[in-house]
Amino acid sequence: MTTVKKILEDKGHDFFSVTPDDTVFHALQIMADKNVGSLMVIDKDGKLIGMFSERDYARKGILLGKASKESSVDDYMSTDLYTVKPEATTLDCMALMTAKYIRHIPVLDHNKIVGIVSIGDIVNTIIHEQKITIEDLERYITSSGYGHQ
């Protein structure tokens, strides 16, 4: 089973963030420029204090009629944080994402942010793992299974 550490080694440790004082409009610009659906919200001490996602904007902004150019990220961000360690597996992440209805999970190593994984990262990794398993089984069945010499 693949670990988050391996996923980050393959995709990189880059992540994008805003401060709680940044405007929602600024956060949305970053998300559009970087083609991401979520940003970590980090305070002045470098501590992860929340997540800001497209879902947060839609539910807390658009539906409540707030203006994104004047509102701060602090008014929109989710503060119920779910994180994983690099040793977590794809199965651990999938279980957490499914149970908590989240699409992005910050990865912390000794309380230091080392990256983020998305539901897409997890699903792509699981698909890759299954493809390898299928190929291995096909090779076993067709070339070295019972009855072959």
Describe the structure.
- The protein has 149 residues and is of the alpha+beta class.
- The chain is elongated.
- It has a 3-stranded mixed sheet.
- The protein is built from 5 helices and 5 strands, in the order αβαββααββα.
- Helix 4 crosses helix 5.
- It has a single domain, classed as CBS-domain.
- Helices cover 44% and strands 17% of the residues.
Summed up, the domain count is 1
Count of DSSP helices?
5
Structural class: alpha+beta
- Main-sheet strand order equals 1-2-3
- The CATH superfamily turns out to be CBS-domain
Average pLDDT for all residues? 91
List low-pLDDT spans. Answer: none
Distance between the termini: 32 Å
Main beta sheet, described? 3 strands, mixed
Element order: H for helix, E for strand: HEHEEHHEEH
Strand content: 15-25%
How are the SSEs placed, and which strands pair?
Blueprint: H1 4-11, E1 17-18, H2 24-34, E2 38-42, E3 48-53, H3 54-62, H4 90-100, E4 104-109, E5 112-118, H5 119-144
Parallel strand pairs: 1-2
Antiparallel strand pairs: 2-3, 4-5
Characteristic terms for this protein:
single chain; alpha+beta; CBS-domain; three-stranded mixed sheet; two-stranded antiparallel ribbon; 5 helices
In short:
The protein has 5 helices and 5 strands; from the N terminus they run αβαββααββα. The chain has 149 residues and is an alpha+beta fold.
